[in-house]
Amino acid sequence: MKTILVLVGKTTDKHFQAGISDYAGRITHYMPFDIVIIPELRQTRSLSEEQQKAAEGELILKQIQSSDTVVLLDEHGKELRSIELARWLEQKQQTARRLVFVIGGPYGFSPEVYARANEMLSLSRLTFSHQMARLVFTEQLYRACTIIKGEPYHHE
């Protein structure tokens, strides 16, 4: 199974970039993993939040194939403990060809992206910046991989 993380906009903080790159490299030891960065919209001052979500949504949907299993990282998504995420991922490895996670822009997702999603997951009840959410997610995906393999990274 190929796993893809779709992001709206570059990660601008160099410390977050370094951490995300580190975890992304570690994840590739367990499964094919890519990060796809959709360029940020330009001149958004003239756009309403809804227009911005719609424009980002079109760009997100262009990255998704009809057979993909699409999981939005969203504050209204299901919360899982790390062990539960590992079991969930293990199940997806049996059923999905391409698993696509999406972290949207600052205003969330368009109705079209929500309609295309197969599932939504939440990283926490806490609110993280989009930059931090990327780091937290890649670390949790790596942690799930090590749990599946029975490696000692995660402690109960």
Residue stretches low in confidence (pLDDT < 50, at least 5 long) are: none
Integer average pLDDT: 95
Per DSSP, what share of the residues sits in E-state strands of 2 or more residues? 15-25%
Instruction: Give the overall shape, derived from the CA principal axes.
Output: globular
Question: Biggest sheet, open or closed, and with what strands and sense?
Answer: 5 strands, parallel
Kindly provide the radius of gyration, computed on alpha-carbon positions and rounded to a whole number of angstroms. 15 Å
Derived structural class: alpha/beta
Give the helix tally. Answer: 5
Number of strands: 5
Assembly type of the shown chains?
single chain
Order of helices and strands: EHEHEHEHEH
Helix content: 40-55%
> Separation of termini?
27 Å
Strand order of the largest sheet: 2-1-4-3-5
